[in-house]
Design a protein that fits this description.
Number of strands of chain B: 11
Number of domains of chain A: 1
Shape of chain B: globular
Helix content of chain B: under 10%
Number of helices of chain B: 3
Number of domains of chain B: 1
Order of helices and strands of chain A: EEHEEEEEEEEEEE
Radius of gyration of chain B: 17 Å
Shape of chain A: globular
Largest sheet of chain A: 7 strands, antiparallel
Distance between the termini of chain A: 10 Å
Number of helices of chain A: 1
Largest interface: A-B, 51 and 54 residues
Distance between the termini of chain B: 23 Å
Strand content of chain B: over 45%
Helix content of chain A: under 10%
Structural class of chain A: mainly beta
Order of helices and strands of chain B: HEEEHEEHEEEEEE
Oligomer: heterodimer
Number of strands of chain A: 13
Largest sheet of chain B: 6 strands, antiparallel
């Protein structure tokens, strides 16, 4: 299974200014495998490392978890879905967080987060594909350089926690007034 | 089957590896295959991941080729992609069969699944064992094992293997399907292993 990523930069009028073409993601991280393992066993609690670095027990689906691997980050939600940062720590499959997360907003070094939007799985020849994208708008008054992107999911029993399941280095320069669409594509090929 | 990818070729991929071992009646190791690259995660796996990522339900073909509403883990409060089938349960977990047709992305079942039992052409299914994520060099791995004992009185040749999951305690969905040739003599035990691997260069 392969994860790919691309970015498209547009102006306020929606015209495409620049594009970073599809490239292979380098970094499913440990928490993704942990979630899958937990789901395979179904009725166990395992400790996963949250985005703040602390371990948190997560219940398997059969133990009544309310959210599990949930990427549905809405508008202005900078903690779930596709998230971005300005850090450039090397990609590593045991990392658990962006190294310098960009927050939602219009102040210095902030970007406005759109809704995390999903496509439906489709089959193309011998492959099954699935896309997720998010628009980030820069109204901070200055250029922002995104250097890292990630997928943050939620899981909880009573309290909701965030966990990173993939992270990539990707440099995207977004001038004031521009926006960028960051898109992940998951592909399975037989 | 091809070799597992390594180094830069493997970076960021989520690979599925597979191998088999055969033990004789006295427990001696008679055959040990190297890890090979499975290339047949299926559309159903993607759809089931989608139910989690989007917190929704999706229609997925079950192992009887009937479209079923697969619940995601966020609203099921029951099994989502359960794989830890008990001994004697040949409905889900790691399954084996005698079909020889090349897998395709929308396969929904093994072509000819071998039933549990000790009759002619049957194998005794052990329980599915899972081993948590561990670090192996620059890889992370989750392993899945199942033993199959041949008490049928004759040799049995497996030609296909797969992974089927249990959803909502009701439906079975095939998420992986591979061709794999393995002859098990009467009285022998075959242990088939899958591993999910992700790498960083």
């Amino acid at each position: 299974m392969m994860l790919q990523v691309r970015a498209v930069i547009r102006n306020k009028e929606g015209e495409i200014l620049r594009e970073i073409p599809w490239r292979r993601s380098h970094s499913f991280v440990k928490q993704f495998l942990d979630f899958i393992y937990c789901a395979f066993l179904d009725d166990i609690v395992i400790n996963l490392r949250k985005t703040d670095g602390d371990l948190q027990g997560v219940s398997g689906p059969d133990l009544g978890s309310y959210t599990f691997l949930d990427l549905t980050g809405g508008i202005n939600d900078d903690q779930v879905g596709i998230v971005i940062g300005r850090g450039d720590d090397a990609e590593w499959n045991q990392s658990y967080a962006l190294s310098n997360r960009i927050l939602d907003g219009s102040s210095l070094n902030q970007m406005e987060f759109g809704e995390t939007t999903f496509g439906d799985t489709w089959v193309d020849g011998s492959s099954a594909l699935w896309n997720v994208y998010r628009v980030f708008s820069n109204n901070s008054g200055a250029t922002i350089t995104i250097k890292e992107i990630a997928l943050y999911c939620e899981a909880n029993d009573i309290t909701t926690y965030q966990f990173m399941i993939a992270r990539d280095l990707l440099t995207v320069v977004v001038a004031d007034g521009e926006n960028t669409t960051i898109e992940y594509r998951m592909q399975i090929t037989v | 089957m091809k070799e597992l990818l390594t180094g830069e070729e493997a970076a960021g991929l989520l690979q599925l590896g597979v191998r088999a071992k055969i033990y004789g009646k006295d427990g001696e190791l008679k055959r040990e295959d190297p890890w090979r690259r499975s290339e047949s995660l299926l559309e159903a796996f993607m759809l089931l991941l989608e139910t989690a990522f989007e917190s929704t339900n999706k229609t997925v073909q079950d192992t009887s080729d009937t479209g079923r509403t697969a619940a995601g883990p966020n609203n099921a409060s029951t099994s989502w992609i359960e794989l830890d089938a008990a001994a004697a349960n040949a409905n889900f977990g790691l399954l084996v069969g005698t079909g020889t047709t090349t897998p395709v992305i929308d396969d929904y079942n093994l072509e000819t699944k071998i039933a549990h039992g000790t009759g002619a052409g049957q194998l005794s299914y052990g329980s599915v064992s899972l081993f948590p994520t561990r670090v192996v060099g620059s890889n992370l791995e989750v392993r899945i094992h199942r033993g199959f004992t041949n008490g049928s009185g004759g040799s049995i040749t497996i030609h296909e293997i797969g992974l089927a999951v249990f959803n909502q305690g009701v439906y079975y969905f095939l998420i992986a399907h591979d061709l794999y040739d393995l002859t098990i003599d009467d009285g022998d035990l075959a242990v088939i292993e899958y591993k999910i691997i992700t790498s960083t260069t």
